[in-house]
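Q: Give me the 3D complex with protoporphyrin IX containing FE.
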Amino acid sequence: MSADQAKIPVSTIDVFSDESLRHPFKDYRVLRDTGAVVMLERLGVYAIPRFGDVRDALRLPDRLLSGEGVGFSDVFNTPRGMNVIQSDGDMHRRLRNVVVRPLTPAQLKAARPQFKQMISMRIGTLIGQGSFDAMAVLASYLPVEAVAHLVGLPEKGRERMLEWAAATFNLIAPEHDEADLNSLAQARDFMATLNIDVVSKGSWAEQLFAAARDGKLTEAEALAAISAYILPSLDTTILAMGHLLANLANAPEQWALLRAEPERIPGAVLEGVRHSSVIRWFSRVTAEDHEVDGYQIPAGARVMLLYGSANRDERHYSEPDRFDIRRDARDHLAWGTGPHMCAGMHLARMEMEVLLEALVEHDVTLHAGVPELGTNSGLYGFTSLPLELGRRW
Ligand code: HEM
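A: Here is the predicted complex, encoded as structure tokens.
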């Protein structure tokens, strides 16, 4: 260590304790104030908690690798190779090109009216019905119904997708339980049953299998892309919608502003994902030494990139704990940045925008009860959110 290199501070914070998983923001603040890099003693990994440093790390994919896995457990990291999120370089570019084909803004524009109609009808059935669990009947509606339809999954099996997606994200931590392992095994069994004959005609999955049949990709690449539509697309969007609903219900002046100025809806969605980042973290492995603000992380180290902390960094956002739809949050890191930036963000944005548009158009009042916070190791969000949609007229 050269004289001008600082000693990396050590923290005893356990980011996987139930308390920290439910209420992570206090710990994130302590980590940010402790240093630009902090050694998490319990996990034996380096954490990067500040906005600018997480952003810079995500934009150095040759130095901070994804192909060594982005979780902390072998079971999460093992299915590498044919996995867009856990690959680097040419392999990653090739897989990503396949995955993003149907996910461009232009392609999604065509699906938007149907999404809007679906969510508007669902909201219509909930108005004036008293309190309901918004996670189960409102936030999960579009991700499960509409996305499963676009991807073209067979009816049988797809009702388990939510359980599989949650289990996959939970397996990211170093310790995990039997039930999640079983769910992952069942998800893999379901994926293995997919082929061109069982998926819906004209769906994304059918197009991918057809491309594989025509020799444009391998069957394994087609399956990798299909699983990239399923596992990272459900809970993420559902939990983000839950946060948006709670944030708007708990800040009546923000909800009033949005109703008065619906052109703010796209900005409100971005502020929602910034404020309550659903993906807590992913990790990288350093291919070479990586310096952050005078701290040297050695080559071969595992580094935890704390997206949720970065988005609440007071060095970057003023009053970061405040949900404020007037804020310009376009540079938030909730979908990451750099080459692995979320491939489905346009779809997620569209789902959340039509939700808010429909709520504004129905001219409802929003009342939220106390949500139950989940303890998923990879995802921050509610397991239930009591919500009431009232009539204003
Ligand atoms: C609010 C909803 C969502 C959030 C917060 C979110 C967040 C993220 C984040 C943080 C990453 C970066 C991974 C990294 O840095 O290693 C990512 C990647 C990815 N997301 Fe999302 N996501 C969301 C919705 C979706 C949806 C709807 C889909 C699919 C339809 C999707 C598919 C993917 C894929 C395939 C990747 C890997 C991209 C790559 O490695 O090149 N996500 N997402």
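A quick observation: Residues 58, 66, 70, 84-85, 96, 99, 228-229, 232-233, 236-237, 240, 273, 278-279, 282, 307, 334-336, 340, 342-344, 347-348 surround protoporphyrin IX containing FE (CB under 6 Å).
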